[in-house]
Amino acid sequence: MCGIAGIVRFNNSSVDAVKIARRMDNAIKHRGPDGDGYLVINGDKETSAFGDDTPSSIIESGILHKPTTSISKTEKADAILVHRRLSIIDVQPTGYQPMCNTDKSLWIVHNGEIYNYKELREELSKLGFSFHTHSDTEVILASYKQWGTDCVNHFNGMWAFVIYDKANRKLFASRDRFGVKPFYYVHNDSCFAFASEQKALIASGVVDFKPNASAIFDYWIYSNMERQEEGMFTGILELLPAHSLTLNLKTGELKKQKYYTLPYSKEYDNNTFDEKQGIEKIRSLVDDAVRLRLRADVEVGSCLSGGIDSSSIVSLIHNNNHNALNTFTVAFDDKRIDEGHWAEIISEHTNSTAHIVKPNSSELSGDLENLIYCQDIPIWSTSTYAQYRVMQLIKQTGIKVVLDGQGGDELFAGYESYYFYYLQDILNTYGVSAFIKALKEIQKLVPSLKQYFKQMVLKEYLFRLPAKQQLTARLSIHNELKYLNRDFLNQHVSQLDEKPRVAESVNEALSNDFNNGLLKSYLKCEDRCSMWHSVESRTPFSDDIKLIEYVFSLPSKYKIQGGKLKPMLREAMRGIVPQQVLDRKDKKGYMTPGPTWIADIRKDVRYIFDNPVLDDFMDRKRIIADYDKLFNNPHKPDNNRIFKLIAFPLWLTIFSRKQPLL
């Protein structure tokens, strides 16, 4: 797990590639505190260079790709690749990057893990390849040499990498199928630059900070974070999940391609499906996904919320190795949102060493600027802070790698929102009587179903109104929108004419969330929170391709049964996870006392609203006039919306400041 960046000059431009590369290196230092490295390219000559943080053991080593000069002594470059190292697999000098293949025709900077690298290495060895390291990164190079750009279809894992193909004078970059690892870039007449985080591109100077009003409108109206290629930063593009790109170093031409589409069953039922065998298959696949993600040359721990997903992971780790496992949990004194009791059951069941953190509002206030800056873009709610503090706790224990249950809800249908599509499935397949029966089953499990369904109907059908009527309706429904600049809203109201497709089945809804949707937003938060604290977070439910493809091949009927969410996973984990955890019905997730925290910190964040830079998007006068009315509601339910009125202006304030340079 690492951070990557790079710069390519075009047309003999005056872009100072060395200075830009060093700025980006510094901006993502948190992603790889174990060292840095550079590949400097001038014409057809490349030189491996060390940076200010490169360990002496690397510089003095005899490795094939050892750095031979200091980047501080490099005066110019046509292109530079940058790597920040967090040593996880092959922690010896041989794991250093940028890395080359044995004949130095290919070089790579890589962020992520290819979990099936041992199997691929064995396959490639039989094809005649030799290796000079024990890393998964070198396996990527050999795979590219053997299969070309199709190599990515052989990988099981998470990745964002760039390969310098010397013979063909091109860069090949790729991002994993579902967006676990990030990749952002700038492409203009002067240069192509890329980085693991947007902040590195802003700090580099290749692009100025300019808020993207279109993406900001989507953030407020739909709570979208990065659905389009150009997100919150104008001029910075995201390489979307399941995409690769090729850059011609001679012409500057950039080509993108989608290399993968997740198939899913469009059936509701299948009379030939053997449910018992399906459960056994899921148990085997989940176990294998967890086992692969224990591959590391450092200690591996696990996040533990007490929910079914993380409990399954911790229990399977215990079954696999029986070693003392370190688990990490967030807890609160408020029993209405606390899951500590459930996590304690799993810790006792697996003889784990439990580490618990209890964040409070005072700590949130002190960490708020770092929280927003580390995320790069404004977030939805204080739940991200709970994850931030768990990752901080992990770092404090000295552990570099943890497994996490992110993706389990989107894979196995764990959110109550999926009931909406489940009932559609029932109505379309069996008719009104079956629909009414299913509705009654759900009502027994979810007492607040009526209010919840009201929200879902608004979410799915409000967009059918004409744009201006839709905006009026949203302003009347969502209180926080009243505090936005009305001219800003009116200027972008036409975006409401875009009519998204309503999912017609549970599987289609899951597919929408899994592919550049809800899951990617959560994975983005996971990546930033973990990497800010130099921790690698592994998510078997989000990137194990064998598991994911199998579960999506199952008809929708098996995703929700008798009103119960995640029935297949629950049954697959019988005998592995304690029964009381499998049968719990009080799913909470990363809930926090958001309204209380907001009320507590409201005076601390008051300074944000003195900044006139907010005026293009927000009605500061109205916010200030209604300040206590707006933010002092500690007993109201957390709707994950009011915190946006703090997160967004703070994001705008932080990134509007002049970026520090070398």
Short description:
The chain is built from 27 helices and 21 strands.
Describe this structure in words.
This protein has 27 helices and 21 strands. An 8-stranded mixed β-sheet has the order 4-3-2-5-1-11-10-12, with helices on one face. A 6-stranded antiparallel β-sheet has the order 6-7-8-9-13-14, covered by helices on one side. It is globular and about 70 Å long. The two termini are 25 Å apart. With 662 residues, it is α+β, with helices and mostly antiparallel strands.
Note the topology.
Elements: E1 2-9, H1 17-27, E2 36-42, E3 45-50, H2 56-59, E4 69-70, E5 79-85, E6 99-100, E7 106-114, H3 117-126, H4 136-147, E8 157-165, E9 170-175, E10 184-187, E11 191-195, H5 198-204, H6 213-222, E12 237-238, E13 243-248, E14 254-258, H7 275-292, E15 300-303, H8 308-321, E16 326-330, H9 340-350, E17 353-357, H10 361-375, H11 383-396, E18 401-403, H12 408-412, H13 418-430, H14 432-445, H15 449-461, H16 467-477, H17 486-491, H18 506-514, H19 518-532, E19 536-538, H20 540-543, H21 545-553, E20 560-561, E21 564-565, H22 567-572, H23 579-582, H24 594-601, H25 620-625, H26 627-631, H27 644-656
Parallel strand pairs: 3-4, 15-16, 15-18, 16-17, 18-19
Antiparallel strand pairs: 1-5, 1-11, 2-3, 2-5, 6-7, 7-8, 8-9, 9-13, 10-11, 10-12, 13-14, 20-21
